[in-house]
Amino acid sequence: MKTTPRLHVADRLAEGRDIELPQPQAHYLTGVLRLASGDPVRVFNGADGEWLAYLATVAKKRSTIRCERRVADVMPPPDIDYVFAPLKHARLDYVVQKATELGARRLLPVLTARTVAERVNLDRMRANVIEAAEQCNLVFVPEVAEPVKLAKLLEGWEPGRALIYCDETAAIASPLEALAALKTPAAVLIGPEGGFTDDEKAMLKSSAFVTAISLGPRIMRADTAAVAALTLVQAVLGDWHHKC
Q1: Which of 104, 122, 124, 176 has its CA 20 to 30 A from that of 142?
Q2: Tens of pLDDT along 119-172?
Q3: How many distinct helices (H) and strands (E) make up the chain?
């Protein structure tokens, strides 16, 4: 059975509305998938939900779709943020995609003393978020925030939001036990490859809203730690814990 392609669109979605597709999306549907006028397409955004649409016009320079009916409302994931020191190149792409798949509502790059990425390509990050949302049936697009230094982030932290970070010296050995005392809204903080400095650790430990969790006896790469920590938080605080 043929799978209906699924695309994120920036335009407003409404019954009977025609939307001109950007050239890359038009080429994907008509040039790669070989769809023709009248073929179905699923489209979504973070405001209007997901819609069943059909290719209305197919031309070399202009292709459009027509929205027929809404099939799903916007469904934001639990209020859990992913706060992270950016990595380089492909590994950053990986963690952004996985954080989206694992249900992060927002992605906040944080600059630490040992952050190795020279600059943060927000456009690339947003493109990876959209691609992951398209593939995992997410009817929502996580926000990608501007980078902020760790000290400034902690200074302006949102009251009532728990901040969870990974620390092998955490007072409670079991991460599940440490997380059981928390609730959403929450955020998961993953540091740089070289870890936090002593000064940064002191800032974190002195903040009442911060909870340290252990990820076990092995030292993980930052991208592995991100997946492990987000999985634990979703299992205890997110939309997985009542489906076991």
Answers
A1: 176
A2: 788 999 999 999 999 999 999 999 999 999 999 999 999 999 999 998 877 778
A3: 7, 12
Residues in the chain, overall count? 244
186 vs 194 pLDDT, higher one: 186
Q: How confident is the model at residue 216 (pLDDT cuts 50, 70, 90)?
A: confident
Alpha helices in the chain (DSSP H): 23-26, 89-101, 122-135, 150-155, 175-180, 198-205, 222-237
Cα 217 to Cα 171, 201, 205, 220, distances in angstroms: 14, 19, 21, 9
Count CB neighbours of 116 within 10 A. Answer: 13
What letter does residue 128 receive in the DSSP assignment?
A: H
- Interhelix angle for 222-237 vs 89-101, to 10°? 10
164 touches 206 (CB < 8 A): no
Q: What is the CA radius of gyration of the chain?
A: 20
What are 83's strand-pairing partners?
A: 108, 189
Is residue 121 within 8 A of residue 93, CB to CB? The reply is: no
Check: CB of residue 78 under 8 Å from CB of residue 239: yes
Place of tokens 């920036």: 10
Locate tokens 């695309």: which residue?
7
Record the tokens describing residue 204, joined without a space.
Answer: 């974190």
Burial class (CB in 10 A: 0-12, 13-18, 19+), 28: middle
CA atoms within 13 A on the CB side of 174: 5
Burial class (CB in 10 A: 0-12, 13-18, 19+), 146: exposed
For residue 90, give the 3-state DSSP assignment. Answer: helix
What pTM was estimated for this model as a whole? Answer: 0.89
